[in-house]
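retry 2 of 3: previous attempt timed out while embedding protoporphyrin IX containing FE. Reduced batch size to 1 and resubmitted. Inputs unchanged:
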Amino acid sequence: GPGDPIPQPPEHWIGGNTSDVDPSFFVSSVWSLAATYGPIFRLRLWNRSLLVVSSRELVDEVCDEKRFEKIPTGNLTTLRKLLGSGLFTAFTDEHEWYLAHRILMPAMGPVAVRRMFDQMVDCVSQMILKWDRLGPDHVISGPDDFSRLTFEVIGLTAMNHRFNCFYAEEMPKFCVAMADALIEAGKMANRMALENTLRVFSHRKFHEDVKYMKGVADHIIADRKANPRPDLQDLLNTMLYGKDPVSGEQMTDELIQNELITFLIAGHETTSGTMNFMLLNMLQNPHVLRKCQQEVDEVVGDSVLSLEHLPKLTYVWATLRETLRYLGPIGGFQRHSKRDTVLGGRYKIHPNEVILINLRGLHHNTASYGPDANVFRPERFLNGGWESLPPNAWKPFGTGARGCPGRAIAEQEMIIAWALMLQRFNFELADPSYKLKIKATLTMKPDNFNFKARHRPGKD
Ligand code: HEM
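retry 2 succeeded.
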């Protein structure tokens, strides 16, 4: 009944459970602790108390918007130094969140996203051309080229800006600065305040990275103001000229700067991670790769890809959804209860406590996905399998008002990418004995994942 004790690993006399987690790969500790302590457990870290929930029933409850909300704490507090009150790091009751949310949401829905089709094809084509010219023996780094792709797509679709990632040997400086800053932000959140003060060097580097990223955003805004493009309907124009339908208010330059950086970060890391995991899953399950390619051959064949083809690629969609279930780029997301409450009819919860939704735990629940929940099997989402999932059993894009506004963009760009990639290439692992090793920053991706792409005969 209410008041039941919440399972918790034994606390150490200093730092509580701090030494039970790996600060450089927090989520992996969550996975192994969940295996021992079950669908709900508590961790007392030096600076916060955390509840990890992993079962579909508990997650369903925590997704209830009347009782629970997102509050940016932990990692997200540090990230606010970079993203301010941008959408991702804003408090839900913060004025800036409502303003940006109301102005931007209509420009990111499925209808608006259809307008981005040609630009997405443009970016994917650059990648395809590169692979084609480098040839079948060239070793492609998945993390590098898929980051180039998703970064190029978000730059072009959101702000009509070409970073030209495929025309440089080095990764764009923004990507490097961003990756470094995210790693540092993650570490800062798990370090003690005193230690953070002592780390003068990494501190200075973090602020330089932040300054660089703000500079990029400022440049893009200034350029658009100096050279207006009334012909475009991109996110940048929406932010510069859009008015809040409720108050008539417009976004300030500072807020636009925060949103641009937010989009560049949120828009590319996650999507790139998903592309990497999906190709790896397909290469490790060759029948899935074969079926995806067969479907592209049947639906698209040798014709020019069009918007109408996309919803017909049902097996490719199922493979994407299964990838996000099996192991996606995001380990979890945070909720807080709005007031004292009882979870699962048993556990007393206080609003100060961070509740972390453990996505891998949720997505590998046998109650939702059956006894083969640990197997990669896109077929589970076909023939009504997708439609008949219990509520809140699949949450890779977060939940409610704070759920991912970029979902339609990400999904469309990925389906386009797979259609065009599978139409032209056969893929193989560069190292057939490759075993998944996860590289974790704010998001996850397979470390050192390399492959080769061979042009299919007769497919120009
Ligand atoms: C929020 C996942 C792609 C922009 C989120 C959240 C998740 C998520 C889980 C909620 C985070 C939380 O509750 O703390 C993903 C995944 C993606 C993806 C798995 C790709 C496969 C994108 C893209 C964009 C984007 C392409 C931009 C175009 C955002 C923004 C937020 C967000 C701005 C914050 C929204 C708010 O709180 O109002 N995403 N995302 N995401 N995502 Fe995505």
